[in-house]
Amino acid sequence: MPVTPVDLNDANILITGPTGQVAAPIVDALSKIANVTALARFSKDSDKDALEQRGIRVIRADLADKRSLDACPDDFDYVLNLAVVKSGNFDYDLAANGEGVGNLMARCRSAKAFVHFSSTAVYEYAGHSPRKETDPLGDNHRSMFPTYSIAKIAAETVCKFAAHQFGIPTTIARLSVPYGNNGGWPYFHLLMMKENMAIDIHPEGPNSYNLLHADDYIEKIPYLLGAASTEVTTTNFGGSQAVSIEEWCAYLTELTGFAPNFREKSTAFGSLSIDTTRMHDLIGETRMDWREGIRAMVENLSPQLLR
Question: Number of H helices and number of E strands within the chain?
Fold first, then answer.
């Protein structure tokens, strides 16, 4: 049976990386029921202003800079860490992602639960075998994001250390492919199809992933918090259905008439579907069918492209 979800009504919640594609819908949803504080570097003042205008408290800080966190309260009920840096500079990316989660957890050590959003990019490529949480880790995304996989692995390691050191109940959720009405990988593919741009795929197809719709990951956050433990709970976090790039592009063709221009490259991301056993045991199955989710995404972002 899934764990008991926590009640987030009126809770004090800190969300890092609030302007990112994954975090933005979470901020929108939780700010309606809880007291949300958004923490980021806010390189664009307009992003900070937009959140403040919606009544969301904001903190400008850099997780790589411990001193900048002095402005952050230390009494949050729950913390959702969705901050990620992909500058390509190893020193900074390791500091921001790895040391950063340690700095954040040291500051928020009184939290009832902490969820660190990691990525299935931490897994070593293994063909079509669905990845389990105990499978080998590796430098999966080097071809496109040189620092990403290594920084994510480092962040998980520091997260575990801090959870043990400070006694913070923690869940590490390894995201598969998040998407929703504000876009995601399938939407990028649609835009590439529209312009007849080449879509790189691994020769060992089909290239399968577990699309995770925003409605589902928002619904599961109270369960991820409920699953947190001081021993650290690590779980895959994707949609219950595995679907390939080839399949979702074919469906986009049905919807729009644009055909994909696939280009096989050995350096392209390979299949990275997940074993959902532990996830289902902890937080239950997801509900959004990937076809419904993709159609809703296109209807929201580019309805003029629909047939």
Answer: 10, 14
Question: What is the edge-to-edge ordering of all strands in the sheet holding 233-237?
Answer: 57-60, 35-40, 12-16, 78-81, 113-119, 170-175, 233-237
DSSP state of 51: H
Residue 271, φ and ψ in degrees, nearest 5: -55, 135
What is the model's pTM?
0.96
Cβ neighbours of 71 (radius 10 Å): 10
* Cβ contact 19:240 at 8 Å: no
Strand partners, 162: none
Structure tokens at 150: 């290594």
- Structural domains in the chain plus CATH codes: 12-180+211-240+274-287 (3.40.50.720)
Looking at residue 269, its pLDDT comes to 87
pLDDT, one tens digit per residue, over 124-167 is 999 999 999 999 999 977 767 789 999 999 999 999 999 999 99
Cα end-to-end distance, the chain, whole Å: 42
